[in-house]
Write a structure and sequence with these properties.
The chain is an alpha+beta fold and about 180 residues long. It has one domain. It has five helices and four strands; from the N terminus they run αβαβββααα. It has a four-stranded antiparallel β-sheet. The longest helix has 29 residues. The protein is globular and about 50 Å long. The C terminus is likely disordered.
């Protein structure tokens, strides 16, 4: 089979464009919800396998032609005030409500895909490559607190105010 390099490049460009647009849309949706008021927060996205019962329920919606067409996994998008442990099949971003600033902390694919993101590969990605390198060699740097993270006491107050359902106008109750 002969592959046209220009066609392959166009398809890759289209795929990368769609993927990054999906990621930015999910992040922007969470930022717009302001889950922690105006406080900066993490967006943790991680892949989880869909159980057979969930697959069957998705099939019954009529959206899929056959059970084989139902996805095997889903991505869960979770807003958090603290960093999770770095893990494969996950992404971590830091969002700053009220701004268009989103910081990429890591993008770590499944282990079986690590080699695909190395330099000089068609699917090369510097952020993914750097994330994989840090995950394998210096996981502590990925999981370390950021300079602008809230302290534990402030985080506890925010979580308590959410549990009580007491939000102020633009900010969660915190002093």
């Amino acid at each position: 089979m002969k592959i046209n390099i220009l066609d392959a490049h166009d398809r890759l460009t289209d795929f990368v464009s769609k993927s990054s647009s999906d990621i930015s849309e999910c992040c922007q949706d969470l930022i717009n919800q302001r889950p922690f008021g105006s406080h900066a927060f993490y967006i943790f996205a991680h892949k989880r396998t869909i159980g057979m019962d969930e697959k069957f329920n998705l099939f019954l919606t009529g959206k899929y032609y056959s059970l084989a067409d139902v996805p095997e996994a889903t991505i869960i998008w979770q807003p958090r005030l603290t960093k999770p442990k770095a893990q494969t099949n996950s992404m971590l971003f830091k969002a700053y409500p009220g701004t268009d600033k989103i910081k990429v902390i890591w993008m770590i694919p499944g282990r079986e895909m690590f080699d695909q993101y190395q330099k000089d590969n068609l699917t090369e990605s510097s952020i993914v490559f750097q994330s994989i390198h840090a995950f394998e060699n210096d996981r502590g740097s990925l999981e370390a607190k950021e300079d602008d993270d809230l302290n534990d006491e402030a985080i506890d107050k925010i979580y308590q105010s959410i549990a009580k359902g007491t939000k102020s106008k633009n900010n969660l109750l915190i002093q």
